[in-house]
Every structure is written in C-alpha cells, then in structure tokens.
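[stage:ingest] chain + small molecule (calcium ion)
[stage:ingest] validated
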Amino acid sequence: MSSDRLPAGVPFVEPPVLLPALGREPVPAVARALVELTGGLSAHVTAEGRFLFIADTSLRFLEYSREYVDHASLFELTGIDDVPVVQEALAAAQTQGPQHCTVRLLRGLTDRLWMQLHIALYSPRTRTLPATFVVRGVDITAQKDSEQRLRELALCDTVTGLGNRGYIQERIAGAIAHANDGGPNFAVALLDLDGFKKVNDSLGHDVGDQLLRAAGQRLVAQIRETDVAGRMGGDEFVLVLPGCDDEQALNGIMKRVLSAIQQPFQVGDQMLHLTTSIGVAFYPRHGTSDGTLIKHADAAMYCAKDRGRNGLYVYTDDLGDLQRKAFSLESAMFEAIHNGEFSLHYQPICDPVTLAVKGVEALMRWYPALGPVSPAEFIPLAEANGLINLLGGWALRAACMQLARWDTTRLGGLYMSVNVSAQQFHHPAFPSLVWQAIADSGVEGHRLVLEITESVLMRDPEQANLVLRELQTLGVRFAVDDFGAGYSSLGYLKRFPLSALKIDRSFVKDMPTSSNDRTIVTAVLGLARELGLSAVAEGVETEEQRQMLIDRGCDSIQGWLVSQALPANELEGAFASGSLHLEGGR
Ligand code: C2E
Ligand code: CA
Ligand code: CA
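[stage:predict] done
[stage:export] tokens:
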C-alpha cells in the first residue's frame, strides 16, 4: 500500500459523522465511494490509534457503531496479544515507508478475525501537527483457518487421531520454552506396547489399527488436559507431562497407565491382552532439547523391555554404560554356556510349623571369572536375546536329573520347583522339552512343579490353558510365581489348572509393619484355600513373619530364615548335619 495522498483538486466534502476534531480531514465523495466498495477495514488514524475516519462498510464488517468507534482506538479493536504489533507497524511506517502486519481484530468485541493490515503514513509529523496514518485491512481468517487445518492434518496421526511425531516434537519444544519462562518442568514418557507385533502379524492390520486406536484412547483418559499424548509410529506412544518432574509424581500416573493398558481389549469378538514398557526422561535433568529427551526416553524404554516388560524405567546418565555392559554380558553369556559356567542352586520349601523340607526351588547361578552375575541381571538379558530357551531347557533337565539322583540318597521324595519364563512357556517345543526331561531322568511328573508368572497366563490365556492342560496329563503341577505383584484380577485363576500360589516376597517383607500387606497376604491365603491351591510364602527372613504366616494358615514357607539357595552338595551337607530335615525328622 502506498502512502499516496488523496488526489489533489478533488472537491472535499465533510464526512457524515463528526469525528474527533484533531487532524480530521474531509474525504472527497469519490474517494469515499471507492473506499466503501473495498470492504474489510479502511481507516485514517492518529499515532495513538484514534479514528479520524472509518468507512461505513468497515463499521458494518467489524460490527461496531460509529458512537463506539468515536471513543475507541484501533488498539482497542485489536486482540490483546497483537497490540504491540500494530504499535510497531505505526512507528515503523513513520520512517520506513508502508508496513504490513497480520493481526487479530475483534469483531463486535468478541470474535477474532485474522486481518492483514497495510499501514502507511498519511501526514508526516510537523511542528504543529502529529503524524496520521491510513490503514487498510483485508480479512484472511478463512485462509488462516485452512492453514491451521492443514497444519493439524500434517501433525495428526490418522490411525489414532492423536498427534504424530512432528506434533510431539512441537509440543515438547513448546513445553521447554514454557518451562524456561517460569512454567513447570516436565517428563517425556515413551511407551511401547509389548506383544503388539504378534497381534498385528497374526490377526492383521485392521485389528492392529483398532487396538492402537483403543490403546491411544486409554492413554488419553489417564492424563490431564494439560498433558499431551501422541503416537510416534508403529506401536510407540509418547506422553508429555508438565509438572511431573520427579519419580514420585511419575509413579502415580504410570501405575494408572500400566494398569489401563493391561486390561483386556475387546476388538471385534476377540479379547486381546497387551502390556506396555515405558521409558522416561525428565526435563531438564535428562536433556534440554526435544531430540535428546526422546532419545533418552527411548533408551530407558529398551531397558524397561529388557527388565521383563510391563514396567517403567527412568533414564539415568550411565544408561549408555549399562547398554555397553549389557552387550558385553550378552557375548559373555554365549561363551559361558559353552564353558559350562551356569549352575543350579536349590532353596528349600518347608512346612512353616515343623520346618520339614517338602521341596526345593532350582535357582540359576552364573559365576564368571570376573565375579557372580545376579539372575535378576542375566535372566532378563537371556529373555531379550533368546538364550533363555537354551538356558531354561538346560535348567529343567539338570533339575530333574538332580531329583533322580537325590532319590537314591536320604533326600528322596522331595519335589522340584523350576522357574519357567514367558518365552520358554510360549515356545512351541516347550511341552516336548518337559516331557523329555521327565522321561530322561525317570522321575514322576507330579514331582515337578513349574513356576510361571501371572503375565505368562495373561499374555495369551487360551494358549496358556492348552499348554497347562497338555502338561497336566504328565502329572506336572504349576505354581503362580510372584503372586500379587502383577494382575489384580483374580477371576482368571479358576480357569487354569494350577496347584499353588507363591506369595511375592514384597508382601511378606512388609507384613510386620504394613497392615495393608497383612491384609493382602490374608486375602491371598483365603483365595488359595477357596480355589483348592496351596500357598507358598517367599522371602521369609524373620520369626515374626513366619509366625504371622502360621497364624494365617499358610502351607509352606521359603526364605533365608530356613536356608538360602545352596549348591546340591551343600544342601546335602545341611541335611547330614541336621540343620535341615525332611518330614518325619529324616
Ligand atoms: P524368583 O523365582 O522369585 O526367586 C526367588 C528369589 O528370591 C531368588 O533370587 C532367591 O534367591 C531370593 N530369595 C529367596 N529367599 C529370600 C529371602 O529370604 N530374602 C530375600 N531378599 N531374597 C530371597 P535369585 O536367585 O536372585 O533369582 C531371581 C529371579 O531370577 C528369580 O526370582 C527368577 O525369576 C529368576 N530365575 C532364577 N533362576 C531361574 C531359572 O532357572 N529360570 C528362569 N526362567 N528364571 C530364573
Ligand atoms: Ca520362582
Ligand atoms: Ca518368586
């Protein structure tokens, strides 16, 4: 827009309505007629934004009366955030020629319209008169709206309707800027659905998409309005959680998220079960850019997966080291299997009153040259790299062989409890492996108890039931390990042919101090009785715990109070010396 003055020599007429006297100038009739044709905003204003002239069409367009405009300024018609933009454009127009700016004007004081304003100096400031400006505004709301829609489409994940990766990156960048302005710090949580690939591969992409949509909806339902949920792609989701800046705040919400995903999904006529592994990075502790935060949350998520899935892991600065260590452990493991560095220790399971030993649990041990590695470290690793099938198969055979050997000594008649991880259990060859171990050792099937976790049963209940029933025909019994730590729904227990519940160590540990844990243990024991299952309390370390378990009718206890897990020869020694005994005092 040029700053041309109105053409000289055209007869002037007074504007129809009185405007403030200052700088008011009559507008020629032809010019006015032209102006009235153009629509949008046409005005003549002072540097303070007061209207010296405004076209009738502008008033109709902006839905103001002339009386109102007489007393208002252009700034009062401008959206509050954009007032400085208009002020700057007026100042710049005085010295730098015509200016353009895009601002929101208020229609009828409420609606916001996107307007492109062109502002030009009309009369320069003189010693006696202040500067004035002509302002022309074009409505670009429709264009802005479609831009916005396009942006939303570009940032929208079409499968779930949540934001996509680009959207998440934008929102994290926004949260960073806000935090730097004094807003809250925040957490970025990356979630990966465990077992999704299997559903997608076996039931097809339609089912997969429906499952993703449903999972996305459950996530959104767990978070606050100020939180953000999005999908990174595949089966990965992200949450951005402002105000969640420590582990305590995090745990509350993540518990809800984990349990929301754990509930079965009904897709068509199928019930599907998923869990999720979550990695978390905090701003600014673990990164100060969206890229770093996502990368670190991702590394933490892989750690959560390695640790057995369905859990949460918070990024630590030494995670990079840990991953390197995990890698070298992994290669060491292959060697170790060849070198026979793995062994089994056996922990007695006893009658709580008489302390007579009824059975033992086989627990794997690894003593490489550099010092022992805990099963809590190498078992998840073996599960992640698939070696668990090899290791677990060996443990099963070795345990059965040991049982057969003990049968020829004074330790005859014990039962053997062997841990089975999810991967082993779901391996198609698993039933035949068990059958082989029993056949080769010559022990009877009922002497063998296989310990599986709740999540093994819940991952694919139909399939799990088939495996359980098949092995049941050999007499093999099943115990639910770490009971209480996973699923809270107990109804499913009835559906499976189980023989025992092992009460998770965490509940036993706090029984003396926590009435809550006492209630849980009492309830689990009641449940076991009702379902005709026996109950084994794990991790019994004190007389007080033992007494509380006796009072509540627990069948068996296992823990350091009686004995740690021992190598076979040391266990034999403990029986020989009388510090352990079998039923009937043997
Ligand atoms: P789990 O099956 O829950 O085994 C019980 C764990 O509690 C063992 O840890 C045992 O040493 C420990 N424990 C026993 N009594 C006490 C006590 O009084 N106090 C405390 N604080 N701890 C006690 P461990 O041997 O480190 O094994 C850890 C986990 O590794 C096992 O947990 C099991 O999930 C897994 N695991 C061990 N051996 C095998 C195996 O052969 N196959 C598979 N799949 N997993 C195994
Ligand atoms: Ca166990
Ligand atoms: Ca256990």
